[in-house]
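Reproducibility note. Readers wishing to regenerate the assembly model reported in the main text can use the exact inputs given here. Chain order matters: entities are listed in the order in which they were concatenated for prediction.
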Amino acid sequence: MDYSSFTLWILENGVSRQILELLVAITLLATIVSVSRYILGSKTYGIYAPIILAIAYSYTGLRYGLAITVIVIFTTLFSYSFLRKIRMHYITRIAINYCLLSVVLVLVFLIINRYGFGLDNMANIPPLAVISIAALSDFFITSYVRKRVKTSLMTLAATIFVSTIGWFVITRDVISSYIINNLWIVPLLILTNLLVGQFKGLRVKDLARFTTIVSQKDNDGK
Amino acid sequence: MMVSREYRNILGLNRRNQEYIRPYNSPSAKNIADNKVLTKKILARENIKTPEIYKLIKNKQQLKFLDWDSLPKSFVIKPNKGTGGNGILVFYGKRKGETAWIRSNGQAMSKRDIVLHIENILEGRFSMSSKSDIAIIEERIKTDSLLKQYSYKGVPDIRIICFNNVPIMGMIRLPTKRSNGTANLHSGAICTGIDIATGITTYSMHMSPKSLMSDIYEEIDSTIDLRENKKLSGIQIPEWDEILKIALICQRASKLGYVGVDIALDREKGPVVFELNARPGLGIQVANRTGLRWRLEKVKGLEVKSIKHGIRVAKNLFGGEIEESIEAISGRKVVNIQERILLFHNTEDEKKKPKTEVCTAFMDTGILTSRIVKSWANRIGYLSTVEFFDSLNVPKSFKSFKEAQEYIDNNLKRLTLDSNVKRIAKVIEGEEITIRPVIEIKIKISGEIKNIETIIVTDSIYPVVLGKNDLKGYLIDTSKTFK
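Running the prediction on these inputs yields the following C-alpha cells for the assembly.
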C-alpha cells in the first residue's frame, strides 16, 4: 500500500499501522457518537462504550459481535433481575453477575461449537473483543439500577445502533485507507466536534418529542 | 422535510445547556441544588418550609446505632445527592408488633431490607456520579385534600421554572398507578400545565406507555387510574401566588439563574419545597403546549426589582395566552366570584320586551339552590308573591328541618296558592331554620340567558347568590383575573 509522506514518516518512527488505524478509528467513532448525541439526540452509555463496542465488532465481525452482545444483555438482565431480590451489597451483586456471565459465555461457546447455529467461527474470535463486549454488562446494570428497564434497554439499543454505524464506517477499507493517508481529516474532525459543541438547535429526537405542541399550534393557526 | 416555524419557540436540550444552564448556573449554585441537605439549610434561612429531617445517616456506623423506635410511623428515605427520584422510599405506616414499615403498594419492608437500602445509598448507588452519599430520613408530606383527589397515592408536586427572577412556566405532576405513586414523568406520572397568571390547570399529558421512544407524550383529559377519574383542566391550584413567591425566593437564595423549583402542598404546612433542580427537564413545555424559549428570551436582560415585580411581569407577559382558551379546553365558562348579571322583570306579556336590572351576584358553591333577596324580588315584579307569602303567618322559625318539612307537608296547598311559587324550601337564615318560597326567575350570566329557581330570602349582602344547581358548567375565578 502507498502511504502519503506524512503517514509514512509516522509509521517509520515507532507507530505501527495497527495502532495508527485504531487511533484514527477512535477519532472517527468519537465524532460519530457526538454527532448522534447532539444532532440526532441518541443517548448512549457515554462515549467509551460505543467506541469500544464498535472496535470490538470490527474484530469479531458484526454478526458474531451482535450475537455476543445479545447473550451478554440477556444474561445480565436475567441474572440481575434475580440477584436484586437477594439481600447483598451492590458490588458483590455485580461480581456474581460477571461470574454467571462468564459461565454462560463458556456454555454458549460449547453449544455453538457443537451445533453451529451459523456461527461456526466463534472459537476464533479474539478474546479481548469478547471481554470488551462483556463489559457492556456493567454499563447496562448501572443504567438499570437507576432507571427503568425500558429506558435502560432504549439506551442500550441506541448504543448498539451507534456502535454499528461506527463499525460500518471503520471497517470500510476505502474510508480507513483514505483517512490514514489524509491525516488532516483528524483536525477536521476536531473542528466538526467544535461546531457540534456549539450547536444550539433542536435535536432530531426533540422534533419528535415536541411534535404535540407544534401540531396543536399549527392547527390553531388554520 | 419542512420543519414548522413553531419549533423556534421551543427550548431544546442543546440550547438549554448552552444558553441557560452553563452561563446562569454557577458550579457552586449547582452544588446547592444537587445537595438536598444544603438546599434545606439555605432555604431555612429564608423561612421557606422544606420536609423536616428526622435523621441524617452519613456512614455505616451511624446506621448501626440508629434508634429506629424514635422514627415516626410514616417517613421518607432518600439519597442526599440522588437524581430523578431514584432511591426514594416512602413509608406510610408501621406494621403492628414488627419492625417493618408499609410502602405505597401496601407491601411491608423489614428493617433488614431498609438497612440494606440505606447501605446502598451510602455506597452511592443512587447518587450522581456514583460517589458515596448521605441517607436522609425525613418527614412524609401529607397531600392537600384538593390535590389528593387527582393523584394515586403519592404526593403531587408543582414545578415552577424561574429565570431572571421571573416565574416562566409551571406544571403539576400527578402520581398515577403506573408511576407507582411517584411524580416521575418517565415512570408514567401525569403532567398538567398551569396558567401562570391564574394558577388554573390547562392541558394534561403523560408519557405514552405504548411508545417505544421515551419522552413521547400523549394528551389526556382526566386522571387515568383512580376509582373516580376526574377532569384535569380548570383546577385552581391553592395558594398560587404564594407558590410563585416561594419559587422566586428559592431562586434568589440558591443563586441559580435558571432553576426548576419543586413545591408540594402539605395539608397542614401549606407550600413545602421538595427540591431545587439546576437542570430542569423540558417536558413542562408539552404540558403547557407552548415553548419555553420565547418566554425565556422575553425576560432575558429585564431588570426585575423585586419578587412582586417578577410575579407581575410573568402574569402580564405569559398569562394572556392561556386564559383565552380556558373555556375551550375545560368546556366551561369562566365567571368571577362576584359577577354582574342581568335580572329580567317578571312580565305576563310575552310579546313585550322585558325590562332588565343589573346586579352583582355572588357565586357560592356551598349552597344548592340560588337565592334572591326580597327587595330585589319585589323590584323585578314579584311584589305580589312576596306580600302573599308574608300574609300567610308562617312561623318565623322551626326547631328542626323535620318540623319545617312537616309544616310544609301539612300546608303545601295553602303555601303554594300563588302561581309564581314553585315549591317551598327550608333554609337557615340568621342561624334560624325557616321556610321560604321558591320562584323561577330569568337571568343573563356570562352572555347566557337561563331560567333558574331561587329562594326569596329576607336578608343577604348580595341581591342574588347563585348556588351549585346553577353553577354547573362554570369555572369560578376567585382572583378576578379574567374580567
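We highlight two features of this model. The mean pLDDT of chain A is 88. Chain A has twelve helices and no strands.
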